[in-house]
Amino acid sequence: MTHFGVICPPFAGHIHPMAALGRELQRRGHCITFLQIPDLETAVRSEGLNFWPIGESAYQPGELAESFTELGKLSGIESLRYSVDLCQRFTATMCEDAPCAIAEAGIEALLADQLEPASETVAEYLRIPFVTVSCAQAIHRKAQIPPFFTLWNYENKLWARLRNQAAYYLLDRNSQPLLQALNQYRKQWKLPVVRKLYASRSRLAHISQQPAAFDFPCANLPKHFHYVGPFRNPSPRKISFPYERLTGQPLIYASLGTVQNTKEDIYHCIAAACQGLDVQLVITLGGGMDVEAVQGLPGSPLVVKYAPQLELLSKARLTITHGGLNTVLDSLSHGVPMVAIPITYEQPGTAARIKWTGTGEALPLASLNATELQAAIQRVLTEDSYLNNALKLKESIRQSGGVKRAADIVEQVVKSGHPVLSGLTPVVSRGVAYST
Predict the structure, then answer these.
(1) Which residue from 270, 272, 269 is spatially nearest to 298, judged by alpha carbons?
(2) Judgement on whether residues 180 and 285 belong to the same structural domain of the protein
(3) Are 280 and 249 contacting, i.e. CB atoms less than 8 angstroms apart?
(4) Superkingdom of the source (predicted)?
(5) Where are the beta strands (DSSP E) in 279-337?
(6) Residue 321 neighbours by CB distance under 10 Å
(7) Which of 4, 213, 319, 383 is 20 to 30 Å from 414 by CA-CA measure?
(8) Structural domain containing residue 343
(9) Per-residue model confidence as pLDDT tens digits over 241-290
(10) Is 387 a member of any domain?
């Protein structure tokens, strides 16, 4: 048995897939402890896993929710900048408190989220094995891959590579406060300075929730990089839903995730676009607002604060999403095509992959209107190519191994102490990638 610590950003989109991986490892006899700020104790324990508080002196009770409320008001570059400030503080707190907590808890290895730079740094300092996990979109930092925060399509041409490199240069410049906070500890701990944000230092294994089919072509990936598909298994959390209010019409499921979910104007646009179509629109607010706050939406959609996402997607014909990877993968796991309205951070890059794979459409938030959104919805509902491509991705996900394969890799790392190499060879045709 190994005692694994989990370090990831304090967002539900990272907590939930890490919890699924933790439960699978726990089922195999291992011990799993999340290292997180106190506000997340209830969320972690509700997933059936152990919790160890980090940053008790740095964070006041309720402060995380206040930060999320402020972040939810923003979009685009303003949201990205605010996120960098949040991440800088969280990274510094992790570097300050996690080493002692890991020693005190008796943690022997780490599951390190790629989007939390402190996770790998702490493991390097303590000289304990770690597996890097991409709960969000895997970031490769290669010139041919458009940056995760852009809606750019893949173009294997010189101009595109130069564009991509310039965008990453600007990201690193704008992220200097975060890199400085990280490097303060790396210098203190006599570790090499990190100059590029989210450039993984993993040497044993790097696991991504994406299937290979849902990524741009990427040559020369590290041999220890693994596409395994979404981490999913039953959670102890139960969410009620008024199933008796479903009408039997084609179901459209709409979600803006758990952070960017207070934008009433987007909900209004979605409802207006669906009004008059022979569909039933179900909107989940993800806890961002009370249902009463969005009463009177056009077409009287069914609005709930939380929804059992997988159960509803099993009945859905279309998903309208902000481009959060978990909702996207859940939709594809059920063969459901999508219309994406990316708001910030890695959501544009995920939306770009929806377009690339032909599993849906993506509309820029800046020019969003009900007329264009309705046209996109009708295209995706009526043109067979979107459904057919979503069904191909469903099969790719089924074959990818998911959380069980991820746990196999983690166990092999701690058992052997050596890199676990992937035998996956992506084969890409226009629109959809397959693996052999």
Answers:
(1) 272
(2) no
(3) yes
(4) Bacteria
(5) 280-284, 302-304, 316-321
(6) 28
(7) 213
(8) 243-396
(9) 999 999 999 999 999 987 766 788 999 999 999 999 999 999 999 877 77
(10) yes
